[in-house]
Write a structure and sequence with these properties.
The chain is an alpha+beta fold. It has six helices and 17 strands. The strands form five sheets. It has a five-stranded mixed beta sheet with strand order 7-6-12-9-10. The longest helix has 21 residues.
């Protein structure tokens, strides 16, 4: 059958339209989206990546508003998406486009690029304080790892404040790192605050090899022997008695002698040290700073 050129052109265009419609309605042609985040319910300020087949105006990123609604071009009314998962949002967008008669059988893909509604605040003695996005199964240890771990000046505990009740849980850091359990390593869902207080310090001065301020990493278990090990011991001609200077609850300074020579020889029990204590090791001249300090 001989066809005129105009008729052949019309048939060819019709075939192209049918092909385009078939690609739009075929789910296998759904444009792939890259996201390593697990599927979670969406909330305010989350960043979404939409892909709508054959619609460049909607194939881009959109951020959920503070009220939990998503405003899209071509749609007159924003969509309420807070609490929905990405597949549910894709269905809602497709339904809205169909009802508005903008697209016929639209194919929509949605992925979350950033969960700002699921953030945990990490503060204090950590290497990278700030806000950590929480998605999927993330525990307290996972959040601390995302903050690159605790800093050298970290104290002996981690303080976890819940998002809704604002209750505080004090967790021993050593136990968390060595023996994590469901009690001391809970799953976080967003909104919590993780704070690692800096360790209190003991100040060592006098006739020692390495005077200075030393953090109490062991908390109340810090003793004179442990601090003497950190300051690398005494210098020659040190006096056998050292002194601990401490302020009491009324702000009065007390002086406590410590038989250091007997302690180092294991002939005397160890002595605990507390935050802000000053351990002074005089030399053999016998002078100490009882009045000058």
């Amino acid at each position: 059958m001989n066809l005129t050129r105009p008729l052949r052109t019309i048939l060819a265009l019709h075939a192209l339209v049918l092909l385009a419609v078939g690609q739009t309605t075929d789910p296998r042609n759904r444009p792939p989206l890259e996201s390593n985040l697990p599927i979670e319910a969406v909330g305010p300020d989350d960043l979404l990546a939409l892909s709508v087949a054959d619609c460049a105006d909607l194939t881009k990123t959109f951020r959920v508003a503070k009220d939990g609604r998503l405003t899209l071009p071509l749609l007159r009314q924003p969509l309420s998406v807070s609490g929905l998962t990405p597949p549910a949002i894709a269905d809602a967008v497709a339904q809205a486009l169909s009802q508005a008669q903008i697209l016929v059988q639209p194919v929509v893909s949605v992925q979350v690029l950033e969960y700002r509604s699921h953030l945990v605040t990490v503060a204090g003695a950590v290497k990278r304080p700030g806000q950590v996005p929480v998605a999927g199964h993330m525990t307290l240890l996972d959040v601390l790892s995302a903050a690159e771990g605790v800093a050298p000046e970290a104290g002996a505990v981690v303080v976890l404040t819940a998002s809704n009740t604002h209750t505080r849980q004090v967790i021993p850091l050593k136990k968390l790192l060595e023996s994590p359990t469901a009690d001391n390593n809970p799953v976080l869902t967003g909104g919590e605050e993780v704070r690692v207080p800096e360790a209190a310090k003991v100040y060592v001065m006098g006739n020692v090899k390495k005077p200075g301020a030393f953090p109490l990493h062991d908390g109340p278990n810090t003793t004179v022997l442990k601090i003497m090990a950190e300051c690398e011991g005494t210098l020659p001609y040190s006096k056998g008695t050292a002194y601990i200077y401490r302020q009491d609850e009324n702000g009065q300074r007390t002086e406590t002698p410590v038989q250091l020579a007997a302690l180092l020889a294991r002939k005397s029990p160890d002595v605990p040290l507390y935050g802000s204590d000053v351990l002074y090791v005089p030399d053999s001249k016998g002078k100490h700073i009882g009045r000058e300090f």
